[in-house]
Amino acid sequence: MEQKNYKIRIDGIDIISKTMYKFQLSENDIFNHQLKTQAVGDENKNLAVVFVQSKINKLNEPTKILAEITIAIGFVIEDFKEVFPMNENGKHIIPSEVENLLKSMSISTLRGIMFSEFRGTLLHKAVLPIILMDSLKPIEGNLFEEVQTPEEELAK
After folding, report:
1. For residue 130, is it within any domain?
2. Cβ(100)–Cβ(108) under 8 Å?
3. Cα(20)–Cα(62) distance, rounded to whole angstroms?
4. SS3 98
5. Is residue 73 assigned to a domain?
6. How many domains, in total, are found in the chain?
7. What gap in Å lies between CA 92 and CA 47, rounded to an integer?
8. For 127, phi and psi rounded to 5 degrees?
C-alpha cells in the first residue's frame, strides 16, 4: 500500500454557537458530554472543515441540556484533489485516517475552548474527557446542515 504524505495546516477556528442555560448544581453532580463531529471537504478551496458540537448535561439527567457549544476548524490540505481519491459521484473522499486525525485535533481544540469559555461559571469543572476516535459511533443527521445559517437570517 502506498503511503501518502499530507501537508495540512490550520486555516481558522470559529465558535459557531455557545449557549448556557439556567441550572443548579450539587457537589455530587457528574457531567456528561454528548459529542457530535463531522468533516466536510471543499475541493475548490483545498479545505476540510471539521464541526464539533458538545452538549453538556448531568449524568443522571440526560435530557436536560446545561450548555452547548459548536466550533468549526478549517484545515488547508495542499494538493487536496491529488491526495484524496474520488468516489463514484465525482466527489473527493477524505480517507478515514486523515478524517480521524482532523477530528481528534478538533476535539482537543474544543476542550481548550470550553475550558476558556466556561472558566468562572458553574461549568468550569465540565472538562471534555479524552475521546478515543474508535469509540465514536455514526449518528443520524448532518451537523454541517444544523450549523448553517439561512441567508434570510443573515440579511436581518
Report:
1. yes
2. no
3. 16
4. helix
5. yes
6. 1
7. 11
8. -75, 130
Residue 100: per-residue pLDDT: 92
CATH code, domain with 80: 3.10.420
Task: Please tell me the predicted confidence (pLDDT) of residue 3.
Answer: 65
For residue 103, which of 55, 127, 138 has the smallest C-alpha distance? 138
Could you tell me if 73 and 49 are in contact, meaning their C-beta atoms sit under 8 angstroms apart? yes
Cα separation of 23 and 55, whole Å? Answer: 14
Residue 129 lies in a domain: yes
Task: Assign 90 to helix, strand or coil.
Answer: coil
Q: Which residues neighbour 32 within 8 Å (Cβ) at sequence distance 6 or greater?
A: 56, 57, 58, 59, 62
Supply the pLDDT for residue 152: 46
Q: What's the pLDDT tens digit per position in 105-149?
A: 999 999 999 999 999 999 999 999 988 877 777 666 776 677 665
Q: What is the pLDDT of residue 139?
A: 64
Give the domain extent around 111: 8-137
The residue length of the chain stands at 156
CA angle 108, 46, 151 (to 5 degrees): 80
**Residue for cell digits 468516489?**
87
Helix (H) / strand (E) element for 49: namely strand 47-58
102 part of a folded domain:
yes
